[in-house]
C-alpha cells in the first residue's frame, strides 16, 4: 500500500467542511491531518460533529498552530475573502490547494471586486488558478497547484450546457434562462433568521433577484465556451424547504437540427459523475443525495417547439462543493476518479 | 340578521373539501347543510377531520341521500369527471354551482377531451359555465349559475399576467415561460407512493414535463386576452417539499416602454385579494398561507434588460381552490367580497 | 357597536408577537394601537411581516415613543427579564397586562432567580400576578390586573392533569412522567444555529435533559393542586422537526377505581378550548394548528394495567402562548370566550 | 482477492430493499445476483430506483425466475407472512437467510399468531431461527442458518437495556417505559394516506396506543435477560415528521448503587456500532443518519433521583433494518464487522 497524502481543511466547522470530512473518511489515498477553526480551536471534531464520533480523533486548531504547510493538499472551506489572504503563503511552500470559496473563481478582478464587495488580496493567484469544473478543465486541473472549486449553481447549470456550448449549438440573441432551486444548506451553517426552520420551512421563495454572485461566474463559463451567449443569460435562484439538493431548470434555444441529447450522451459517455437520462425523465434531487453526481435530461417544451428544457440536479454539498473538491484532488494527484466518492445516494 | 344560504359540498373528504369547510365555518352568510362522500357515508365530519371537532356536527351522506337540490349553492370538490355528470340535474332545479374540478373550465370540448382522456358528458353546461377567475370575470360570475373554479397553476400564472395582456403589452413571437413550484397538497388526499413524505419530502423535481393539464387552461386565458401570445407559452410545474403554497416565476418580454408595475398597481388598486408588491420584492408562499391572497412583484432580470420576471405566490388550497370558490360564491350572491375570507395568513 | 379597547404589544417582532397580531386582527373588541420593538423602530409591521400586508398599518416604535400607558391592555411578548422591569410603571397607571414571558409565573422568587439566572426586579408584581392557566384560574384572572401567561409545556401538561389533581386521584410515591415534544417555533425567532432548518430539520432529539425552566413552573401547579405529587415529576422535552405544535405523553398512576376519562369530560364539559377525545384516540398536533385548542385523551397502557397514558396536544404559539393570552384578555375584560379565537385549525 | 458470495434480495422494491442494495453496493465480499419483486418483474433496478443508476444492472425477477437457491445468502425484505412460506425451501437447500420481516422473531407461536393475525406456516423454522440482535447473540448468529433480524423499535430500546438487564440491575415492580419516536420511513414504501407528506408532515402523534407488534418482541428480549421486568414494560410509539431516524426515551428504575454508565461503557467497549455517549449528552437522530450505529446516553432525571433516563437513537432503516441485516451476514460469514458498513453518517 502506498503512503497516503496529508490533507488539511481550513475552516472545517461549516457544512462543506464536515462534508469534506465525511467523504475523506473513506478515501483510500488521503489522511486528514489538520483541521482549523479560529472559533473552535481546542474542540475535538467528534465533540463538534457527533456524527463523526469514532471516525476522527482530530482537534480543531488555529490556522497558526496547524502545520498546514506540511500538508500535500489544503482545502479552504472558508467564507469568501479568507483564502485569498492565506493561500499564497502555502502556495509558496509548494502546497496544492483546492479553494471551495469564491476567491479564485473569477478571472476579471474588477468584476470579482464589484460582486464580492472587497479588494482582492492576491490577483496573481487568481491568474494562476484553474477553474475546477472537472468535466470542463480536467487536463488543466491535473497540472494545477491552485484549483478554484466552482459554486453550486454554476456547477448545476454549466454541466448540462457545456457540451452544447462546446459544439456551438446555442442560438444567439435568444434568452437563456436558468431557474434554479436550492436546499437551505447552500446558505451555510451560520446563525441567520432567514435559514431558521420556522422561516425557511414549509416555504418557497426567490432570492437574489437583483443579482446573485453566481451570475458572473456562470457568465464567465458561457463566454469562454461560445461567443454571444452570456448576454442573454438570466438567472433566478430560489430557496426550497429541504436540506440538500439543487435543481436547475434551464430554458434554451438551439440551432436548427441540433440533437442535444446525443451531444450530451457522447460528451459524458465516460464520465462517472454525469448521468444523462432519457428525454422525458425528470431527475429528482434525492436521486443524488450524498453522492458526487449530476443527473441531466433535455427535451423540447410541451407546446412550444422552439424552446428546449434542461433539467439538472446535484447535491449542492457534494458535486456542488465538497465532492467536486475531492474529485479535483483526485485529478490533481492522479488518484482513481471515484476514490472517496463511491457511496450510493441515500434514498429515501 | 338575514337568513343564511344553504351550501352543499360534494366530495368533501379531500383537501379542497376540508378547506371549504374551514373557510365556510366563519362565513356570516352561509350554513353548510350537506356534505357528501360515497366512501365515507355515515361517518361524521368531526370523526373524519378531527380538526373540525366542535365546529360541525354534519355527517357524510351519499349524493342520493343528501338533499342537494335544496341547497342554494353546491360546491363540487370531486375528481374530474364527476361534476359533468351530476351538475346538470342540480342546475335544472335552479341550484347554483361552483365546480372546483376541471370539468367546465375548457370551452373547446375537443381540447378538454384530449387532455382529460374522457368523453365530456355535458357540453351544454360547458357553454353556460363562467370561468371563475374572479379578478377577470367578476361581472359574468355575478350572473352565473355555473362557475368553473380555475386550477391552481392557472390562477397563480394568470393573475399577474391579466393586466398586461388586457393592455396588450406582451411581445409577440417571444417565449413566455412559467416555471411553477407547488406544494404537495396539490396532488390531493389520495394514497399515492409519489406523495408519501418519504418520497416527496426533502426532494425537488419537475413533473408533467410532457404536458400538464393546466397548460391548455392557461393558454385559453392567454388567447382570450391578447392575440398571438399563447403559442409562445411554456409551462413547467415542479413539486416542492411543503404542504401548501405555490410559486410562479414567469419570464416574459414586454413591448418597449411598458411600465408593468404601474399597470399592475392600477389594475389591482381596489382588489382585496391581489397584492402588488414593490419591484425587488420576493413574495414568499408562507406570506399567504391559509389566506385567499395572491402576492405579486415584477422586475427586469438582472443582467438582461429584455426579460422581465414576475414572481407570484398563492396558497394552492385557498386562492388556488377553496378560497377562490368562496370568493366566487360571494360574487354570485352579492355577499361582501371578504366574507369568510378575512383570516390573516398563518405565519410561521 | 361598543368602542374597542386599545391594546399594545411590547416586543412584537417575535413569533408570539406576530401571532398576537394575527389573532387580534379579527377580534371584535380590540384595536391594536401600539407595537414596540427597539431594534425595528421605524419599520412598518407590514414590511417586517409581509403576511400582515393590508391588515395593519402600524409602525414599530421604541417603548418610549409608544403611548403604552394609554392602552387598556398591554401584552409583553418579550424575552424573560424585560416585563419585570417595564410592567410596574404601566400597572401604576392602571394598565392591565398579560405577560407572555416567564417573569411573573413563579411565586417563589428564590426558585425563579435560580432557574432564570437573574435577580428579580419586581417581587411585588409577582405576588400580585395571577397565573393565567385559564381553565384553572378563571375567576382570579377576571379580576386580575397582571396575568402571567403560562409556558407552552406547562399548558400542555397541566390541562389534562388539572381535573385529576383537583380530584386528588394521582397516586403518591409513583413517578409522574411527562415526555414532551415541541415544534421548533418554541425556540423563538432568533438567529441560532440549533434552530436552522439544516440542524433541526429531519432530526429528533431531547434537550434540556439537565433541567428545563418549565419544570419548576409545572411543579408549582402540581403542588398547588394535590400534595405529594410534584416530587415524583419527571419532565423531558424533545425537539421535533416541525414548525408549530406540541405533544405531551404523560405516564401516570391513579388511585384504584379512578375513571379518569369521566373526570376529564365532566370537568371540561363547557370549556370551549379543551377537547376530551375518546380513550383510544391519538390526538395529533395538526388537528389544533393555528387554533386555541387543547385536545386530550387518556387510556391504560397496553400490557401494563397500572400505568395510565395521557396524550395532549396544543399549538405552542396559540393555546401555548398568544391564543391563551387573548383568552386571558377576554376573561379580564368580559368579552366572549371565543372572541378572536374562532378560527378553525389549518389542516392540512 | 477471495471470491465474493452471492446474495439475493426478496422483495427489493421497498425501503429496506433499496437500503440493502445501497449498503451492499460497497461491500467487498458480496455480489448481489438476484432481486425479486412480483409486481416489478422485468423492470431494471436502475429504472425503479434512479439513485442506483450506474451502480446495478440487475433486473427484478419473479421469485420463481430468480435462482435464489444458488445464492449463499438471501435477505427477505418482504411484508410479514411471506418469508415463513418461502424460506423453508431455501433452508432445505442450504441457503442462509436473514429475514427482515417479523416472521421468525417471536419464539412463542401463539403470541406471534395473536399479534400478527395469521396462522404461522413454519413453526420449525421459528425454533431454528436466531434472533439477530447482533450485540446480544453474536455467537449464535455466527452459527445460524436463519437469522430473524430485529424490528426497529426493539433494536433501539433493547440495545441500551441489554447490559443493564444482563447485570440484573433493573428494579422489579417499577414501570419501565419506552417512549419512542420514529421517522415515517418505518411505515414502508406503500401507498397509504397516513404516510402522505400532507398528513404526516408538520405533525406529531402517537399511534399503536392499543398495542404495537413490537411490544411482544421487546418483552421477549426483556424476559430472556432478567426475570420480572417485562410485566412493567410500557411502550408508546409516535410518528415524527422526518424520513429516517428513531429515538427512544426510556424511563427506568435501577437497583441502588448501580452505575449504569459504567456498565454500558464496559459492555460496549469493543462494539463498533454502539456508541455510549457521556451522561448529559442528547444524541440526535441525524448523528446516525445512513449509518449502522446506535448512540446512547443515560442519566438521572432532573428533579427525581429515582428515575433514570436513557436516550437512544438509530437510523431505523440501517441499524434498525438493512444495516443490522448486513451486520448479521458479516457475522454469519466471518467477514469484517464493518464490511459494507463504513460510511459516515450524512450530516446535515
TrEMBL record, chains A, B, C, D:
Its main location: cytoplasm. It is found in: Cytoplasm. Gene3D superfamilies: Dihydrodipicolinate Reductase, domain 2, NAD(P)-binding Rossmann-like Domain. Pfam families: Semialdhyde_dh, Semialdhyde_dhC_1. It is an enzyme of class 1 (oxidoreductase). Keywords: Amino-acid biosynthesis, Arginine biosynthesis, Cytoplasm, NADP, Oxidoreductase. Its EC number is 1.2.1.38. Coiled coil: none annotated. One of its GO terms (molecular function) is NADP+ binding. The active site is at residue 152. Pathway: Amino-acid biosynthesis; L-arginine biosynthesis; N(2)-acetyl-L-ornithine from L-glutamate: step 3/4. It catalyses: N-acetyl-L-glutamate 5-semialdehyde + phosphate + NADP(+) = N-acetyl-L-glutamyl 5-phosphate + NADPH + H(+). Residues 6-144 form the Semialdehyde dehydrogenase NAD-binding domain. GO terms for cellular component: cytoplasm. One of its GO terms (biological process) is L-arginine biosynthetic process. Catalyzes the NADPH-dependent reduction of N-acetyl-5-glutamyl phosphate to yield N-acetyl-L-glutamate 5-semialdehyde. Belongs to the NAGSA dehydrogenase family. Type 1 subfamily. This is N-acetyl-gamma-glutamyl-phosphate reductase. It comes from Neisseria animalis. The lineage of its organism: Bacteria, Pseudomonadati, Pseudomonadota, Betaproteobacteria, Neisseriales. The gene is argC.
Amino acid at each position: 500500500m502506498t503512503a497516503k497524502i496529508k490533507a488539511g481543511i481550513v475552516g472545517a466547522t461549516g457544512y462543506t467542511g464536515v462534508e469534506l470530512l465525511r467523504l475523506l473518511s473513506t478515501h483510500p489515498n488521503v489522511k486528514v491531518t489538520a483541521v482549523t477553526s479560529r472559533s473552535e480551536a481546542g474542540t475535538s471534531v467528534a465533540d463538534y460533529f457527533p456524527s463523526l464520533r469514532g471516525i476522527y480523533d482530530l482537534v480543531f486548531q488555529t490556522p497558526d498552530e496547524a502545520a498546514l504547510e506540511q500538508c500535500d493538499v489544503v482545502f479552504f472551506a472558508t467564507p469568501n475573502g479568507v483564502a485569498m489572504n492565506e493561500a499564497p503563503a502555502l502556495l509558496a511552500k509548494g502546497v496544492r490547494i483546492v479553494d471551495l470559496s469564491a476567491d479564485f473563481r473569477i478571472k476579471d478582478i474588477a468584476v470579482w471586486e464589484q460582486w464580492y464587495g472587497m479588494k482582492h488580496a492576491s490577483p496573481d493567484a487568481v491568474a494562476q488558478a484553474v477553474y475546477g469544473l472537472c468535466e470542463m478543465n480536467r487536463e488543466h486541473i491535473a497540472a494545477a497547484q491552485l484549483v478554484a472549486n466552482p459554486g453550486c449553481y454554476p456547477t448545476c447549470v454549466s454541466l448540462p450546457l457545456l457540451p452544447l456550448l462546446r459544439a456551438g449549438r446555442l442560438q444567439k440573441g435568444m434568452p437563456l434562462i436558468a431557474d434554479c432551486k436550492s436546499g437551505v444548506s447552500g446558505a451555510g451553517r451560520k446563525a441567520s433568521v432567514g435559514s431558521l426552520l420556522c422561516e425557511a420551512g414549509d416555504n418557497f421563495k426567490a432570492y437574489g433577484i437583483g443579482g446573485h454572485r453566481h451570475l458572473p461566474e456562470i457568465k464567465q463559463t458561457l463566454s469562454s465556451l461560445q461567443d454571444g451567449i452570456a448576454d442573454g443569460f438570466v438567472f433566478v435562484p430560489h430557496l426550497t424547504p429541504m436540506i440538500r439538493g439543487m435543481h436547475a431548470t434551464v430554458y434554451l434555444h438551439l440551432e436548427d437540427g441540433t440533437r442535444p441529447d446525443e451531444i450530451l450522451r457522447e460528451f459524458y459517455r465516460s464520465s462517472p459523475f454525469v448521468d444523462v437520462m432519457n428525454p422525458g425523465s425528470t431527475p429528482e434531487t434525492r436521486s443524488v443525495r450524498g453522492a458526487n453526481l449530476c443527473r441531466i435530461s433535455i427535451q423540447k417544451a410541451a407546446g412550444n417547439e422552439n424552446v428546449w428544457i434542461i433539467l439538472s440536479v446535484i447535491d449542492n454539498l457534494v458535486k456542488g462543493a465538497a465532492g467536486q473538491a475531492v474529485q479535483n484532488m483526485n485529478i490533481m494527484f492522479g488518484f482513481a476518479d471515484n476514490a472517496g466518492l463511491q457511496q450510493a445516494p441515500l434514498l429515501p
